[in-house]
Amino acid sequence: MATFKKIVSVFLLVFWFAPAVSLAARLYTATEKSTITSNNQFLVDVYVDSDQSVNALSGYLEFSKEILRVVDIFEGDSIINFWIERPRQGTPGVVNFSGITPGGFTGTKHKVFSIVFEAAYPGQAVVKFSDSTALANDGLGSQLPTEVAALSLSILPSDGTSIQKMMRDENPPEPFKASIESDPNIFEGRYFLVFSTEDKGTGISHYEIREGLRGTFKRAESPYLLEDQSLTKTISLKAIDKAGNEQLIVIEKGESVSSVWEEYGWFAIMALIVMVMTLLLFIFKRR
Known about the structure:
- By secondary structure, this protein is α+β, with helices and mostly antiparallel strands.
- The chain has two domains: 23-156, Immunoglobulin-like, CATH 2.60.40; 178-264, Immunoglobulin-like (Sandwich), CATH 2.60.40.
- Helix content is 16%, strand content 46%.
- The protein contains two helices and 16 strands.
- The strands form three sheets. Strands 1, 2, 3, 4, 5, 6, 7, 8 and 9 form a nine-stranded mixed beta sheet that branches.
- A hairpin with a 6-residue loop joins β12 and β13 (218-220).
- The longest helix has 30 residues, at 257-286.
- The chain is globular.
């Protein structure tokens, strides 16, 4: 009888405190097949489950660098809205990531990002998380209990075939805005451009900018120090995703007559010369 009472007491104690130690977040990976032949590419998706509201994730995804090679990383359809550090291979065999989602999220199987791996050599490969953190959407940034799961892969010798894994994306990045700012603590108070957008397909590859109505576009990162500190030139900014789709915006703030002359002055000169020559020819013929 005493033993039965002890068992019941332990059961009630565990049941009573279970909500306090319940799992809050779980990070894991998934792929279509766990057995792949070498020289082939395959996709690994990174997911998060959470029964409490999460607004920030960070960590490292480690993989067997002797066997696997990162081909590309996609974060276009991620539950993360703003990346502090977009998923990237910082050091061989490690993908770093860190981002936030204002307002938080709960639920299961939220995609964080995807990686296209190439099975470079035969062997047993592992993809696992380390130093991963989930923060609660409680206004305090409280760290939540987080479980991680590893993925085991068997890479077989090549069978002579080769598969390249591609993500289909025919849509451009999301429409966006950019703003011209000035801050004494940034670029010594000079004017700079701030911009950002998302792409729900393959993810943003890079941005390109052109100051003025002529010339070529060049790569740019936000914040971008403007060359034209007089703010008289039209600014064209493109967001380009990893599939090559583009979203273009044009900023005409500060454009003036002087800027138009600067952009088109030589056209005006040529037009004036043609007009004068035509007038002189007309006068000469009348005589």
